[in-house]
Structure formats: C-alpha cells, structure tokens
Amino acid sequence: MSRVMRTAATGMLAQQLFIDVIANNLANVNTSGFKKSKIEFQDLLYQTIRAAGSSNLEGSFVPTELQVGSGTRPVATQKIFSQGEIIATGNVFDLAINGNGFFQINMPDGTFRYTRDGSFKISEIGILVTSDGFPLQPQIRIPEGIEGLNIEVAMDGQIYAKIYGQETLQNLGQIQTVQFINPAGLKNVGQNLYEFTFASGAPIIGTPGIDGAGTILQRYLESSNVDIVEEMVNMIVAQRSFETNSKAVQAADDMLNISNQLRR
C-alpha cells in the first residue's frame, strides 16, 4: 500500500505546482508583454512484473507486459510566446512589437536583457529607458526642446523628430529588435526581462520588419497573452486531479486499516 501512497503523492505535488503556474499567469494578466507559462509532466519509472514476450509454463509467449508505474513529475515550465493583444494607449513612447522579436535593454552591469514590454520613458538626460530606468539599446536620445508630440516612430524602428523652424524631420536613431532561435529557452529574471541562455541561442540583432522580425507600432502596447477562461478551466482540472489523488491516498489508508483489523 505504501507504493499507492507514494504514487498518489507525486500526483498531488505535480498538481500543486500546476496551480502555482496558473496563479502566476493570472497574477500577470495585466502585465504588458507578459507571456504565459505552460507546465509539462512526465511519468516516472515502471516496475515490470512480467515482461511482454516472456514464456509461461505452457510454453506460449505473453502478448502484453505487466507493469506498475510510480507516478509523475513536472519537467518543464515553457513560455508560450504567442502574440498578445495590441492595445492603443496614445502615449508617444509606448511601442509594441507586432510579430517576433524583443527590445534589447542595457543593464547597469554592462550585460543585456530582453523584453516585450515597450512602455518606455524619457530619463533626466533625455534617453529612452524602461520603467525601472534601464536604457534601450541602441541608445536613443531625445534632444532638448522637442515635445513628445513631435516625435514619430516608423514601423522599421526609425525615430524622427520635427524641430521648430525646420521643414525636414531629424532622424534620432534606429530601434533594433532581437530574435532567438529558441525563445522558450530564455531565462525569466523578473521586471519583464529575459536573459539569453545556451538553450535559447545567441541573440540575433536585426531591423524591425526584416528577416522575420516584427514591426514597431507607436502609441500601442502589447498586453499579456494570458487567456483568463483557459486558466480558470486549467485551475478546475488541477483541483479535481489533486482531489482524485488525495482520494487514492485515503483509499490506500482505508485498505491498510481494514488489513490491520483482520482477525483469524
């Protein structure tokens, strides 16, 4: 009976982690650029009591095997990088990537992080930064005396400003996007940022709209791709699975109790 309890316990632990992942998805339903996670499971080792193809006492071969499993385990939480809804904000420095790619962010230690959150601000020295003050890379500087309403960002990432008294627009720089061969291999580091790993592959820097990179939409933000209805259904499934595994533990305990009460 102890095997029943151990097997059911692995199922309860797996469903508990499933609920944790669902809760994180729901908590970030309003987080700009957030990508939902999906948990994946694997079955554990099996005890083979009788192997398929073995012969019995009569000399015939057994067509199927007799095995007992030992439960399940979580093996991965994969980020789903499907496109979130593009929402108009009217803010000049809100930028959304329509398609593949990430913005590259320069960190204080000189390393780079990557994000889908394009809610940028202007720092005290006139450069575009994230809400935490980390500058966009390549660095974009807004000259003094230029109002936000006079700045336009093209779909290919080119930034233009209309300067008072000049007819031609001034080019302030080029926003680049970064792609990865396996974005699911990126490491979550919080603050809407990702870090590249060996699994994700090296960052591929390119121009928006070229070689599969998404285009830039000004005055828009990409919302979370979390589907509340889907997460609520998953929560019910996980809860019912947890209850079923707990009933298996209870049933094993009842059977042990009955065995202990047997009398000759």
Which terms summarize this structure?
264 residues; alpha+beta; 2 domains; 5-stranded antiparallel β-sheet; 3-stranded antiparallel β-sheet; 2 helices; 20 strands; 22% helix
Q: What is the ordering of alpha helices and beta strands?
A: HEEEEEEEEEEEEEEEEEEEEH
Largest sheet: 5 strands, antiparallel
**Fraction of residues in β-strands:** 25-35%
Broad structural category: alpha+beta
Give the tally of structural domains: 2
User: How many distinct helices?
Assistant: 2
Task: Give unreliable regions as ranges.
Answer: none
Query: What is the helix content?
Result: 10-25%
**Secondary structure tally: strands:** 20
Can you tell me the overall shape?
elongated
